[in-house]
Amino acid sequence: MIVEMRVYHCLPGRLQALQERFSATTLVFFEKYGIEQIGFWTTLIGPSNHALTYLLKWQSLAERETKWNAFQADAEWIAKRAASEAEKMIVERIENVFLTPTAFSLLK
């Protein structure tokens, strides 16, 4: 198993718009493409409260490449993402890392 951690750093005041886009739109496309989420979090205490962090579960990097690329190329997703940012951009930058569990991890 591989876990992908993605951190979306939003422009000030745009975190709510990102959360709405995930809950109403993005998660529908994740389900369509079999993208499995572990969870979503906002920052309670840290350097910025304008971030959304989430984890995705993959069986392999090949699975991730196939499913993520199909999701990103979906014309309906592209249109809905653009519409959600028609008035103002939401995300300033995205960080992502790929994690693999240790032998002593409860999640494997």
TrEMBL record:
Species for this entry: Caballeronia sordidicola
Domain NIPSNAP: 3-105
Protein name: NIPSNAP domain-containing protein
